Amino acid sequence: MVFNLLNFQLNFLNSEATQLLNDSPTMKTIAEGNTKVILEAENPTQIVMRFKDTASAYHGIKRATIEGKGALANRISARLFGVLAEAGVENHFVRLLSDNEQLCLKTEVLPLRVIVRNVAAGSIVRRFGIEEGTEFRVPVYEMNYKSAQLDDPFLNEHTAVAFGFVSYDEMALISQTAHRANEVLIKFFDSCGIRLIDFKLEFGRTPDGRLILADEISPDTCRLWDRMSGQRLDKDRFRRDMGDIIEAYKEVCERVKG
Ligand code: 5GP
To answer: With respect to CATH, is domain 108-243 assigned 3.20.20.70?
Structure first.
């Protein structure tokens, strides 16, 4: 348990240049990362998530300010968490508060990322030398430990249990939730003319011990390709200097609005 907490705190301090800040006179800042600020909410069981206009890649080595990105990611994430909730996938989203802010349940976010892949792109292409765009027979599930300093090392369910992050039962729940979220999101994006190539999920523990989906789901955390043209509608436009980032995020926002 001590190991778990220590690692959690270390990871929390190291991840994506997170700093603990307490300087806002109105809403107290709990933490700030590259793309979001977490603020205290009036209700102590909730937090306010404020999306910034910052784009960040490669552990923050590549950064830029892209006006309007925060508002688009906020709206898209709200819509996607809404779609998941309607399908019975429990998550932390409560409601939109403003252009850049949403109210969420307060959770202790696990120090790991779950990656779900339907089509080969990004790091799996580099690691395995497979062709980008190759469809997998079944979804690929991967997990990494959130530590920019350690270059986000991979871990498996046994490592996650051995390190005290989760129990085996919780690991099973995480797998089921990731699988279900993938099914729901593939279908939803398909109805919007978008292929869900891959995405990242984060899980948070509620005060009463439940694990639910947390953080964000947006073009910052997914690869989304236009079904007809194959056009990239996600953060790869920033990573790969493809331009038209805001146009792509706007396109996704329009299509998921319903
Ligand atoms: P890859 O491993 O190919 O870089 O990423 C796989 C998927 O997970 C992509 O959709 C990517 O956007 C998302 N992802 C993986 N790690 C991170 C991360 O640290 N931050 C964000 N925002 N997304 C990530």
So the answer is: no
DSSP string, 13-47: HHGGG-B-----SSSPEEEE-SSEEEEE-SSTTEE
Give the right CATH number for 2-105 from 3.40.50.720, 3.40.1650.10, 3.20.20.140, 3.30.200.20: 3.30.200.20
224 within ligand 1 shell (Cβ under 6 A): no
- Ligand 1 pocket check for 33: Cβ under 6 Å: no
Please answer whether residues 4 and 13 qualify as being in contact, where contact means their C-beta atoms are separated by less than 8 angstroms: no
Q: How far apart are CA 157 and CA 167, in angstroms?
A: 9
Query: pLDDT tens track of the chain, all 258 residues?
Result: 333 433 433 343 334 334 444 444 578 999 999 999 999 999 999 999 999 999 999 988 999 999 999 999 999 999 999 999 999 999 999 999 999 999 999 999 999 999 999 999 999 999 999 999 999 999 999 999 999 999 999 999 999 999 999 999 999 999 999 999 999 999 999 999 999 999 999 999 999 999 999 999 999 999 999 999 999 999 999 999 999 999 999 999 999 997
Domain ranges of the chain: 2-105, 108-243
Best residue among 155, 194, 221 to mutate for probing ligand 1's pocket (most ligand atoms within 8 Å of CB) is: 221
